[in-house]
Amino acid sequence: MGDPLFWHRLQFGFTASFHYLFPQLTMGLALLIVILKWVARRTGDEAYNDLARFWIRIFGINFAVGVVTGIPLEFQFGTNWASFSRYSGGIIGQTLGMEGMFAFFLESTFLGLLIWGEKKIGPRRHFWAAVALFVGSWLSGYFIIATNAFMQHPVGYTIGADGTLQLASFWQFLMNPWARVQYAHNMVASVVTASFVVAAVGAYWMLKGVHLVHAKRNLKVGVFAGLISALLVAFPTGDLQGKLVAKHQPVALAAMEGRFESGTHAAMNFIGQPNVQERKIDNPIRMPGILSFIAYGSFSSNVKGLNDFPMDQWPTSIEMLYYGFHMMVGLGTFFIALMGLAALYLWRKRLEQSRWLLWMLMLAFPFPYIANTVGWMVAEMGRQPWAVYGLMRTADGASRLVHAGQTVFTTMGFAGLYFVLGLLFFFLIGREIAHGPVATKH
Prior knowledge:
The protein is mostly helical. It has two domains: 1-175 and 391-425, no CATH class; 192-388, no CATH class. It is built from 15 helices and six strands. The chain has helices spanning 4-20, 23-43, 46-79, 82-116, 118-152, 170-174, 177-208, 212-248, 250-256, 290-296, 318-347, 355-363, 366-383, 394-397, 404-435; strands at 157-159, 165-167, 268-275, 280-287, 386-388, 392-393. The strands form three sheets. A two-stranded antiparallel sheet has the order 1-2. A hairpin with a 5-residue loop joins β1 and β2. 45% of the residues are buried.
């Protein structure tokens, strides 16, 4: 069956990637639901309330599937990564526990009120329940990202007498500078996903000629939220994230750009293929100085290449890291262009008649999912070969008693379960979209 470490990493990567397809929509939708309900209260336009109810139902389906797909991740800390859990559990157990006890229960409780309690609690309390759902959803995201940020840039810890990591400063750990920037970047990216989905559904209804009143409002909210969030993903959040990588993980930055030689006026590659064997980029199209400016704020800054680092500190898959990073950046640029164009047409009141642009909005919704997935792949592959950066290597974190065959078997089981869940998810979401929002009766 091969190396057990390979299968442990593959299983965790597969289950984490599939799971994150769902919370990235719910976290973004939580904000958009609040916006829809706030606009309804401000304007008295009940169509926005109809849309809020519709998206609450979509949120509920995503939330349920997200919970089911997230459970295997928790178990893998004990089954596949027991050595890592033993070493770092005194730290990361804090935020993982907080995510479950506070954010998850807050989120699920108020979701129930939103779906079934509107008539009992009234419009005003229903709005505040939506706010509470948003707070719970985004708190949940912060606790998870604070956990990951410690693995990227460990702070607030001490090493105990038994050699394991212990918490030295809770607030230093919780308010990790890496966590704050990564959180902002991740959450704005989730709003991009939600905005594209909202706009895509509006475009679909408009092209079909159904639910036209609601389709127009869906497009308005989705396009403008999509443009603002796509811009914020690039700057300042993406820019700040890049500067943190340059400061704390320079070897990862070099791998992302396939940069082997150090020097000033470092170029950014727009096109090219990393040739690790010959330590160069084949067929490059690049712009000088851009990487130096993005990383350090000056075109003349020196950016280290991979040759300046021992090979045992290089990320384990430079090609995947390079292509993932450039795919993420390329898609981010596309998001700004598409939503900018759609916003211009919307402002000129021409979007509803521009079927070609409606088709683009409808078909573009998978791309934020791809961008978010490869973005997380870049973050995780860039951290390699470390499980906790500079403290514990990934190879040392795997369980020694779980063999490759066992991991392959359970991975196949997860794949079968996720296939069935995926079919059920598409059926339920498709049924809701076909049914559409229920118009308020006056």
